[in-house]
Amino acid sequence: MNFDDTPEEAKFRAVAREWIGANAPHELDADLKRSGMGGLRLPGRDVLTESKAWQKKKADGGWAVPHWPKDYGGRGATPIERVIWQQEEGIYNQLSAPFAIGQGMCGPTVMAYADEDIKRHYLPPLASGEKVWCQLFSEPAGGSDVAALRTRAEKDGDDWIINGQKIWTSGAQFSDYGILLTRTDPNVPKHAGLTMFIVDMHAPGVEVRPIHQMSGGREFNEVFFENVRIPDSHRLGAVNDGWQVSLTTLMNERMSIGTRLNTGFPEIFEFCSRFELPDGPAIDDPAVRAKLATWAVKASGLRYTAFRAISSLSKGERPGPENSIGKLVAGVMTQDIAKFAMELEGEAGILADPDEAPAAALFQNLLVRSPGMRIAGGTDEILRNIIAERVLGLPGDIRVDKKVPFNQVPNR
Amino acid sequence: MNFDFSDEQKQLRDSARRFLEKQSPVAVVRRVLEGDEGYDKELWKGLAEMGFTGAAIPEEFGGAGLGHLELCVIAEELGRSLAPTPFSSSIYLAAEFLMAAGSEEQKAKYLPKLASGEWIGTFAFAEGVGEVTPDRIASGASQGKLSGTKVPVPDGEIADFAVVAANTGGSGVRSVSLFLVDLSGAGVTRTPVKTIDPSRKHARIAFDGAAAEPLGAAGEGWSILTNVLDRAAVLTAFEQVGGSDRALEMARDYALERIAFGRQIGSFQAIKHILADMYVSATLARSNCYWGAYALSTGSAELPEAAATARVSATQAFQHCSTNNIQVHGGMGFTWQFDCHLYYKRSNLLALNLGSLSQWENKLIERMRAGNSAKDAA
Q1: Which of B258, B272, B320 to mutate to test the interface with A (most CBs of A within 10 A)?
Q2: A Pfam family for this UniProt protein (chain A) (predicted)?
Q3: Local confidence band at A248 (pLDDT 50, 70, 90 cut-offs)
Q4: What whole-number distance in Å separates Cα of residue B141 and Cα of residue B147?
Q5: CB < 8 Å to A388, chain B
Q6: Within-domain flag for B36
Q7: B168 located within any domain
Q8: How confident is the model over A280-297, as pLDDT tens digits?
Q9: Is some CB atom of chain B closer than 8 A to the CB atom of A282?
Q10: Angle of helix B221-257 versus helix B340-350 axis, rounded to 10
Q11: Is the pLDDT reported for residue A254 higher than 80?
């Protein structure tokens, strides 16, 4: 049992470290170090422009998406090398956020289902960050129950015509393409009538409207489709096989290990170490200590769970299901931490101006952002269902709509 | 990175599981629980013959000379099977004390007997209600004689000898020294005490001028016992993880088997979510225990923080899983006949052996703070 690299891993790490040292945008170091929990801020600069610049530079050096095949813009790195790259990229990894969904979910789906000429056309610019992708699955009537989506795709000659609405689409406002899950047959049960496409986000009839979130931010969007044409060559997988295709996408979401999961623990520990209660630093209070210890072992448990997964990758094995607990633990923990810090701040805990509030309003910011963390990418409840059914082998829910044609399922 | 047990260590775990499934079925646990025997003698003999008791004891002292990673995988299986033996007192505590602080003569005298299971050792620490602090140790020793009362002492009635913490003058951490005391000698009175988990017996031991031989230097007791408690905490945490996993499996199996409202109860989300949360806490605890095992086996400076982390996480997990195992079983979980209560009782016993959860939470934060300021200074 050890944390050491194998000789090959050490060699890869040294090469990656040297390249990053020589090429990273060091002028952003101070801002990147300061960011983190509160989201990336680069005062006086445009985040997307800086992100694209770093991604392009990585592409030119062969580091854009290291674990992809060379033909599609990668360098054929192994899964463990992918993790090592992420560890070495460190603070600059924050600049990869605009491409995370495209490279993490859309790309692997295209790779698995598109024709070769489509792959060669679309994947290299996705890898290099020249084109940004989004994932268009959720709908107003299909969130946790995504297979209940209603956006229609109807065949018209060699094209498909799309009408409907998506919601909660991250990054749609700056995306060039997306993978789009649609309903192609409403006369069969819901999972059996779906089809996946590549859609051009600049095509006529696509309209993106940012959602004003409770946090004040506008990271998510609604996307409307009105008679948008997609050539049949841009279909991913067989007609009505879209559910299977979407599972590939979601599976890839689970495979991304090593990306640091924010829990808020380092922040609350630091805060309690310095924050003075009437009797001394908060961290000396037994009630504060009990809370901190409970969060400490969760944060540490997630860290070492990731290390176990990385060890599996290092041995060439698939990581076990234990990695599925991360978001479930981190989401609620962040929310609890935000409330606890504000509670310590007393009446002034309501202050939200970074110039006035303790810790530059970090916890007030987390308070209004954390509810979203417990919903986006699978609600806490859906994640518990997944653990119960796929890990523990419990029976699926009894589903009243399972064998009913979609157009006969009651809806409101 | 290879943050996992080796194939050989996993094989050892498998063989420990097979052995314990055969030699420590629930019937054996219940026999000790419901009887007056202090432990299961056959099982104890078997554990020694398998080489488990001596796993981490060096070969020159009669052990197998493997290491603490091996002892961790054995501990996990002991916890899973609720093995009613003095393994933790004799091996995690007595043997660790001797390895940490014993003279060559003391090691040569005691360790081979502990490795073979011939002698049982224990640690006599608490003196009644409340957290044990240096100033609360009223037992005193001078000129080779020890007096005072220790309660509860795990396996106190069956142990051949005890490591005893006693005051040797003054106050604060330097006032505590450790002694080896033969429990069959004069001046030792032992009486059984009733506990929440009678499958692991405890006793009250009154010392009245009992012959006591120093273990380690005078005034070093607190520092030695702090280290040994950390080591024992990691090993106990593996028992707790083994118990957590078993409680989760029992609940899962029952949720698949039990039909109510015309369906398996495991198809209800109310049940699924309980089980998913049990899986989460058991997984976090296991990963934290691996860190503890790493620190224990490498002699890393991280041990104090890693041990407290493993201890807090595993205590929470075992209590959580054993509590919810009963809940998933419904009324049957509350019966003497079903095994749920065995895990519930053991989880709450282990949560207090070696000190309460809040004490370990306190230690953890104290140690993280020290670690952070060390990093700041570096």
Answers
A1: B272
A2: Acyl-CoA_dh_N
A3: confident
A4: 6
A5: 266, 272-273, 275-276, 279
A6: yes
A7: yes
A8: 999 999 999 999 999 999
A9: no
A10: 160
A11: no
